[in-house]
Design brief:
The protein is mainly alpha-helical and 377 residues long. 60% of the residues lie in helices and 3% in strands. The strands form 2 sheets. A two-stranded antiparallel ribbon has the order 1-2. A two-stranded antiparallel sheet has the order 3-4. Helix 4 (138-156) runs antiparallel to helix 6 (176-207) and helix 5 packs parallel to helix 8. The chain is elongated, with a radius of gyration of 31 Å. The relative contact order is 0.15. Mean pLDDT is 74; it is low at 35-88, 222-228 and 371-377.
Length: 377
Amino acid sequence: MNKLPSQSKEWRQLIEIRTKYDDRLEFLRELETNKHDTSNDVIPLNSTKKGDFHFLGLASPSGKSRRQSQVAFEDLHLNNNDTIDTGDRLTKPSSAVECPYWQLRIIKQTILTGGYITPNVYIPKVMWSQIGLKFSGLSAKTIAFQNIIQILTSNTGSLQQPDTLIESIKENISDETALNEVATQFQAASSSMKSIHDDLIALQNHLSKPFPFIKEVQLEEAVESPETPPTSSVSSQVSRLTNMAIALGKNVKKYAEVGYQRLGTIPTRVSEDEFAAYTLLICNMCDQCQYLNSWYTCTQSLRDIIAKSSSIIKDATYDTLVKYSEKILEDLHSISIFMRDVVCEILLRDIESLMERYLNKMRKSFSRMYWDLIENE
């Protein structure tokens, strides 16, 4: 506008557009204050401006009509009190094992208060509470997340807190009895992490059927001793045909099972309460998974401490601590891959679909604020 003459036709048109735009924003603020409930509001026709018919979804004097959006346009209301820390929470961990747990913390934050999922992408809290939502695989995802919480709580309920073990080692590094107790705890933790890993791999293979983006993990099978080959050529052909028939039957059964389970992932409309329970379950699961991250940092700290104090620790105790700490780290690395390829993959795909719907609704709502420059000009 500064480049246009103040008395020109274009300058006057821009002023008129800006004035009407300010009126629309004021109208939106009133809607937002009243929680967007306009069902009981009565707007006198004689008090409505000519350009407002389009925005209200009514027939305009020229006979044109616009369908009113069911979702009112909203601002994101970012202020200094929001719990958004782009310098801390968006700092990616240096360890690849800790990255999935860091992503889960960010996703939980977007559900509770809204937040940045990347340095340039902000996820508003209202995105997780959309009305009339069509969502895919809600029941399968809910069961899977419940199973993850059950697996973690059932296998880690008898373990001590990792911070307590680290403090015990630092204070009693020369006490052989205390070190033996820590070694016993790490032996129990190693067994628990192994059980968690096996259960999560079984869950991943089950989820690979309804969700095609989840890869199935091939389990190692025990190698059986080869049988003595039959001497007759006829019997060998019969055996080969039998094996082919058995393999074909297994494949047909597998394909039928996969097709049936993928029917449950077809997008269906979910209620507001169902999706609220789902988001609450996500937050609970994200908190439970952080316990594994604590064990990873604890085990790494233990390995560094016993490496520096190897001269004052007995060889048998030292070997036991190193052995079980390495087993724990190995299982936690495999568990971290599950968290990345299954849990984070499901949640990030959910965020993508929810954000796409949210932006479409906001764009449609914003498009209701249109006006004609000068009618019949």
